[in-house]
Write a structure and sequence with these properties.
single chain, mainly alpha, Serine Threonine Protein Phosphatase 5, Tetratricopeptide repeat, 2 domains, 3-stranded mixed sheet, 15 helices
Length: 338
């Protein structure tokens, strides 16, 4: 269950910080997630303190941390400091697309669309090759050019090559031009049920794009228990047999769940490999019996937050995620999985 009150967000932030203390190697992603929960709880100064604590070390993603800090500072009255951070990020020209996009979205949130578009154009010029790629872009870069398309649509700017690329890579049935039409929200005031339903369909499609952005850099992840680990788990905790009736069913459920999420518009999906010792350690940290089924999705989320997820789907010619000796296209990537 996701937190939906300030108190719940505060509790979740504290849980993530406890986990970070137990797993110092995963401190950065856990701190970032904890800072996000503090922001949602209204504790913006507390979130800034976490960003500052990360920046005093040698973080893996310093520009993203600074971009998140700038967004947070601006929200509680420190505009000048936020602008100085944004200027520093632009000058540094990071290779992290998420840092650029977060910076642009901060400006957009404060009605500075022209500046946001300028930053995203700088980023596209810095991150993308001169000729459009033949394959899908990495998720952060794809998200960046999609955001750029939306802001340029709001500014009524003509399409350029990067807008065309965003259109081509857009997975949903509703075209980006229609999805990003600033006038589309006006139809929500219509009294025509058919028109309202059409707009709801468009907004649901757009929500899939926002889900992707909100999940960054933590993918929506599904647990994969290797066969020996699953046997050990069920031998120790037979109460979980209802969750995993057979190993074959477990593998089928993983692929089916991920495909269902993908078809619903969720991107940045992943698989996390579970082990019994790791799961038992997590259960102990939560003061919850390992036999509790509700603990399983929390364990998956924590592993994903610790950057333990493998992106899904793998390329068709790559080894299948299940650990078989076949490629993904020959194994679970087939239209009807084994």
């Amino acid at each position: 269950m996701r937190p939906d009150t300030p108190a719940a967000h505060t509790t979740e932030a504290e849980r993530l910080l406890r986990t970070a203390a137990q797993y110092p190697g995963d401190r950065e992603p856990l701190y970032l997630q904890a800072a996000a929960h503090r922001e949602l709880a209204g504790d913006r100064e507390g979130a800034t303190a976490l960003y500052d604590e990360l920046l005093t070390g040698s973080p893996a993603n310093p520009h993203l941390i600074r971009a998140l800090k700038a967004a947070n500072l601006w929200e509680y009255g420190h505009e000048a400091e936020a602008r100085a951070i944004i200027a520093g990020i632009r000058q540094a020209t990071p290779t992290d697309a998420a840092a650029w996009e977060t910076t642009a979205e901060t400006l957009e949130a404060h009605d500075e669309l022209e500046a946001a578009e300028e930053i995203l154009t700088e980023a596209a010029a810095h991150l993308l090759p001169s000729s459009p790629p033949d394959e899908d872009l990495p998720h952060p870069t794809h998200s960046l050019i999609t955001t750029r398309h939306r802001i340029r649509r709001m500014l009524a700017l003509p399409h350029d090559a990067w807008d065309t690329l965003a259109d081509r890579l857009h997975p949903a049935a509703v075209p980006l031009d229609e999805l990003h039409d600033p006038k589309r929200l006006w139809s929500l005031g219509s009294e025509d049920p058919a028109e309202l339903q059409a707009e709801i369909t468009r907004l649901r499609s757009e929500l899939g794009t926002y889900r992707t952005a909100l999940s960054r850099p933590f993918p929506v992840a599904v647990l994969h228990w290797p066969e020996r680990e699953l046997d050990e788990l069920l031998a120790a905790y037979p109460e979980l047999e209802a969750e995993y009736p057979t190993y074959r069913a477990h593998l089928t459920d993983i692929e089916a769940s991920l495909r269902e999420l993908f078809e619903a518009g969720t991107r940045n999906l992943g698989i996390v490999r579970a082990t019994v010792p790791s799961y038992e350690a997590f259960a102990a940290s939560e003061s919850t019996p390992p036999s509790t089924p509700a603990l399983l999705p929390q364990y998956a989320t924590t592993l994903a937050a610790r950057a333990r997820a493998t992106p899904w789907p793998p390329p068709h010619d790559a080894p299948c995620w299940c650990g078989s000796e076949r490629t993904y296209g020959e194994c679970h990537g087939r239209p009807t999985s084994p």
